[in-house]
Specification:
With 188 residues, the protein is α+β, with helices and mostly antiparallel strands. Helices cover 36% and strands 29% of the residues. The two termini are 24 Å apart.
Length: 188
């Protein structure tokens, strides 16, 4: 049985993929520029998620208003771990959460049909004081997964779950340094 709090992601030696869902205007501008630009907001927290299934649940397979476009955001592992090193669990003391540059919360991981699973998926909120570092220094590339998501959703709806699952990104346990793992599970 998997540990309750474990990061699973698509990653390589240098980068990790996180997912976000946006309104078309934000996604189109970012894809044209090859990076986040207005109308992306640099003044508010942005939440990144390494779990594809959790974002599918959250965005209703890119059908929720304002979340019709799904982007795979490839970022450096160095940036990912730097963000996590500054994180405060959202269940911590409210004053500490209010001052944190990065927020972390753990939510039940989801099955392809949206059912809550018995282990948790990490959501990372990059705060406005760190957002430019995220967009300008840590993001390596942006990929529009929307057609891929729509195809997978259609396959799921028509009873072809096995075919849909072949379209899902391969995610495996992300190896966190011990101190960082302890910080994210206990707030230490």
């Amino acid at each position: 049985m998997a540990p309750q709090h474990q990061i699973r992601a698509d990653y390589d030696a240098r980068t990790i993929v996180v997912y976000q869902a946006y309104a078309p205007a934000i996604a189109d501008a970012a894809l044209r520029a090859g990076r986040f630009v207005a109308p992306f907001s640099f003044q508010r927290m942005t939440w990144i998620k390494p779990s594809f299934m959790w974002l599918m649940h959250r965005s209703n397979w890119a059908r929720k208003p304002g979340q019709e476009r799904v982007l795979a955001v490839r970022m450096t592992r160095e940036g990912w771990e730097e963000a996590l090193s500054q994180a405060v669990l959202t269940t911590a003391d409210p004053a500490a959460v209010a001052q944190a540059a990065v927020h972390v919360q753990w939510d039940p991981e989801r099955s392809p049909r949206g059912a809550a699973l018995n282990h948790y998926s990490i959501q990372v909120g990059v705060g406005r004081h760190l957002i430019r570092t995220f967009t300008d220094d840590w993001v390596v590339s942006l990929t529009d997964l929307t057609p891929h998501v729509r195809k997978a959703a259609s396959l799921m709806q028509t009873g072809h779950a096995a075919k849909a699952q072949r379209l899902f990104p391969a995610e495996r346990v992300y190896p966190l340094p011990g101190a960082l793992e302890k910080r994210l599970s206990s707030g230490g």
